[in-house]
Please model this.
Amino acid sequence: MYLYSLTLQRPTGIISAINGNFSGGKTQEIVVARGKVLDLLRPDENGKIQTVLSVEIFGVIRSLAQFRLTGAQKDYIVVGSDSGRIVILEYNKEKNVFDKIHQETFGKSGCRRIVPGQYLAIDPKGRACMIGACEKQKLVYVLNRDTAARLTISSPLEAHKSHTIVYSICGVDCGFDNPIFAAIELDYSEADQDSTGLAASEAQKHLTFYELDLGLNHVSRKWSEQVDNGANMLVTVPGGGDGPSGVLVCAENFVIYKNQGHPDVRAVIPRRVDLPAERGVLIVSAAMHKQKSMFFFLLQTEYGDIFKVTLEHDNDRVTELKIKYFDTIPVTSSMCVLKSGFLFAASEFGNHSLYQFKAIGDDDDIESSSATLMETEEGFQPVFFQPRRLKNLVRIDQVESLMPIMDMKVLNLFEEETSQIFTLCGRGPRSSLRILRPGLAISEMAVSELPGVPSAVWTVKKNINDEFDAYIVVSFANATLVLSIGETVEEVNDSGFLDTTPSLAVSLIGDDSLMQVHPNGIRHIREDGRINEWRTPGKRTIVKVGSNRLQVVIALSGGELIYFEVDMTGQLMEVEKHEMSGDIACLDIAPVPEGRQRSRFLAVGSYDNTIRILSLDPDDCMQILSVQSVSSTPESLLFLEVQASIGGEDGADHPASLFLNAGLRTGVLFRTVVDMVTGQLSDSRSRFLGLRAPKLFSIIVRGKRAMLCLSSRPWLGYIHQGHFLLTPLSYETLEYAASFSSDQCAEGVVAVAGEALRVFTIERLGETFNETVIPLRYTPRKFVLQPKRKLLVIIEGDQGAFPAEEREAAKKECFEASGMGENGNGNMEMENGGEDEDRDDPLSDEHYGYPKAESDRWVSCIRVLDPKTSSTTCLLELQDNEAAFSICTVNFHDKEYGTLLAVGTAKGLQFFPKRSLTAGFIHIYRFLEDGKSLELLHKTQVEGVPLALCQFQGRLLAGIGPVLRLYDLGKKRLLRKCENKLFPNTIVSIQTYRDRIFVGDIQESFHYCKYRRDENQLYIFADDCVPRWLTASYHVDFDTMAGADKFGNIYFVRLPQDVSDEIEEDPTGGRIKWEQGKLNGAPNKVEEIVQFHVGDVATCLQKASLIPGGGECMIYGTVMGSLGALLAFTSRDDVDFFSHLEMHMRQEHPPLCGRDHMGYRSAYFPVKDVIDGDLCEQFPTLPLDLQRKIADELDRTPGEILKKLEEIRNKII
Amino acid sequence: MSVFGGDSWGRVAQHRKRRLEFLVAESVDASSYKKLSNGKYACLVCPQNPVIDSLFMLSAHCKGSRHRTAESRLNEREFDRQEELNKRIFLLGSIGGNANPNSATCSKKFKSPDYKPVSGEALKSAWEILSNKAPMQDSRNKTGDKELSASPATDRTTNCQLSVVGSSFPAAEASEEEVAKRFMDYRERRERELKFTAAGWKRNCHGKWYKDENVEFDSDEADPNVCLF
Model:
């Protein structure tokens, strides 16, 4: 079996973010690392974050830093990754790519503890860069300029110290003196030697300064001093005239200013009032903002509170350190303060946000200061504060993030054309159920009812130079309605259009006149109001029209074509007549090319299943240039011109080309390339769009021509980052559409459907899915479908939080104390764990997080959710410190209850110092009220945490620690019927098929079991020989399982056919009973048939199809919030083709951050039988000559390769 | 292949052996031997039914003169039997043919005045036995003895020849039903027993059911000692 791996949704979480001017000039940009993807983001003028560039680097980005050479205008990006190399990138604005400036190898690849890459620090003057490992190794590179002002990098200088763990490093700003780097280090050499543990308990962290002597070209340890053992982060303080230099050491509960030869200045971090005393406060992210006259720091704690830190200083002496409460936003992994007055918050979990500064926290607020720090016998006196609403920041945009995807199911609960993907995302109060649908999101601007059922709609400008459209013209069965676009849209009668007849086409002709084509003639309305009318000869009527700005072709009934041109005076002149063999089904004229008088091509579709290209040149007017036969009658034609591009913002290198698109009666979109000189057709592709013949319309998207196809659902064909994408829109069926541009809506679409006129815009181009979000209360763990009523049952749970009632009571108390009225609907808020954007709610949990409890307290709930109405029909909060971990529906045989719900819970679960629990339980619930609510039938105590539950032959299989147990339903409790204790560690997944049971162990991959009724025994007959730490599993077929491990691999294992046969044909059963494996293993071993390193921990797997009637593929969701698919190849030729393409891509286009592609995909186990589609899909981004070179090697043309890539993508989504 | 220790040749060797045996087995007529439960082979052709250790030995045995003589004798006997069979079938056909050239249904055939029911019946059963075709019918005759002996009694009372055959047919059908029923009974019983074993009951050497001590039971759970006996 060969698989094609394709990422459907790139990772959405962010690991690290930096900001700067990467394209040069004044624009502020953000570079974010999303694990294996590097993105360049830019807030546009409306404050919306736009993704300018997104590159998959086939490696793990561990750290990012930006630097600028003195006097330069542009920032460079330094990337620390798992490649064992330091890579310096520059953003190339013209080509819209990252150019690799330098790539220096220093160590082995992979995320290792002593290979640098984990930490990056930059000298603030851009003269040197330090790259550090978690342990021992630190390397310093000197950055400079050569005579041609190109960036140079030196060979590395070592700053190693063995037996030290590094916690954080940063550059120290010391002006133009020798560059200094600071590091928090812990020396463990003594602790390592001392077996009593005394030395370990006395180990002390140090702050160490490393100086790079530029003269001697040497790095030395300059200064080292003890710091708090809770120190976790360093922040550079401006120096060299701008500030006092030195560093801020962020430690547990404190921020300390430190510098060589300077006494410590210490201030306590204010605490939330409701924080338990045992919990400390740690800083998790920091940002510095520096202006000419001042600087300040924003530090965010692990609870989300941001503090503004300022230093009072007198030249180099810091007199006071102040920490003032600033605002509270969800916990971030990185914060970026942009010079344009924005704060980009890359959230740790959940959506990322862009905030605008309203103020910089100059108002009075709770503040702690080094000057007022009080030390008593109990230690330093804490300062308390109460979080409040945003005061200094205002959120202006959000970037959606699915991180982390906890569970996923592909289901078609809404009976739509394609399945929906239900994902459980997020963590704690920011968790949600997100329903993803393949397609672009649209935002509806207006819907207005019309007096009848319209058949068509057009928009026209009055003048070619106008920015906005002037009229919307709607045609009905026997009338035409004209609406003028202004402040409002209203009906007008003075437009000159004939309103007593239906229209066939309305457009701008020449520079400033309008044309209306109706069945009996053409009405030409000049700018001054004069009207010319051309009438059809005899009783013939016009059936089809094709026009551009200067040419009009009409088709009369019977198959006669009449061609008009706009002459110099703006008159419409008849030029040519042509009799076709039969009636015309559709026609279209190519748009007038830039700088030309007319377009050369007319496309005519006939009922004899052909499309003909006719010439419109005066020399060979109406000559047939080429003929294309198609599979069924073409109903609509559209020429789409793609302008030449040499990269730039939104596109790769490609020459201008003309595409002819045809919507066929069978619902297929047929697309072919028209040779711009000869009119020959080539390279045809077709794709099924829906059950209706697609109608094609040209619209404008991001200033470029795009195609809207209206079949049973609307589709948009457009070019995005060099790819032509044909994506469905998540909208209802439309009849007819036209582009729409007005004051309020620059790039919209007006469409008719039913009796309504709709105006909408298309959002977030380039995305594969659009999502509907339903908030949840706690971190979702798993969910199941209640099959009868199509309800979802979700289990949620969190550690270290208070139950809802206690939270609510505490909140009330707090409001009463602070005198604020509670206007929010407390109950609702409680239900949904914080409604998003709920401005009335003073402190939404979604924003501020739950109040923290002791770490051994658990909260958990079971929720029944109706996805159609997005409403929760039942929510059971578990009591007594119980938390739910597994769930399944079960039908016990010959018992009267029907479908029951089994939930595995643990009470008082603790992970530290040792994993322990009070008890585990299996709850059995009965569905009431059509499955809308739950009733507890009974609960059964078990000795461990039931992490896996599954129905099996009318009974319940439970994995409790290392025990697989079969339960039957009893009156008062579950009855233990049979068990097998031979599993190595902990059972985390159970799947069944017939009498086979596929058990997943947390560390040891899959075990294949069989249940024998006659003996009432469970036998393990096969297992895996590779220790896999299983995170997800899926049963593929009788002998095959798919799994994902926590190191980011996806693999398939299969029981060899002969073994499978032997197991099944074992009449006496003696074999399975007495056969023994070696070393406590099972007698048979499964074989690994597929192996692939995804580079991200897959948490869920499912076999499903995302296109109607398409083949199934394996869909997976990952912790970083990405979705991917593995499609099985059906032909050997395809396998050959793609493996060769992959091979050439590996050679010609090595990954950006220096990781070897093959090495990356084989990071833990050699990749087996999987072709990396993400690498193959980078083919269109290669330079044209390289594309041609690869294509030649494959004996194909670049076009054919693109077609193949498109085809295989269309098989998946 | 095993990864524990370096003894991977074992399975390969076993595979190879199995493969060879498979090839050898192809050359020997499958109906001429029987695989015994102890893994040895018994030759069914030779009158003494010699037991042979392996398939290789068996193939050698099959080439031996004694086996071949026995085989030809067997073939001869088979041929004779087939001839006899054809003869009798022809005879039976001629009886039927005399009775009714159209020979539509049995009942019509038996109606004819010169039809001798006993000889017809005897011929039929002889044919069946000889052709060795329907062991089911054989067993049915054995098991359905009672019905067969009963049916002539009813004949005598009604004194109708037609009913003899007429009733004998439903009798056969009835017996078939009974067999099926018994078979179903057996299946059902087996199923019920399995249900009890699956529920955690075990059997001691006297066939008595007892509860497995590692299994939990409901207080009102059915006792197989009561249910099944």
Summary: The CA atoms of residues 3 and 1128 of chain A lie 4 Å apart. Residues 779-812+848-981 of chain A form a domain with the Methylamine Dehydrogenase; Chain H fold (CATH 2.130.10.10). The first strand of chain A starts at residue 3 and ends at 9. DSSP finds twelve helices and 94 strands in chain A.
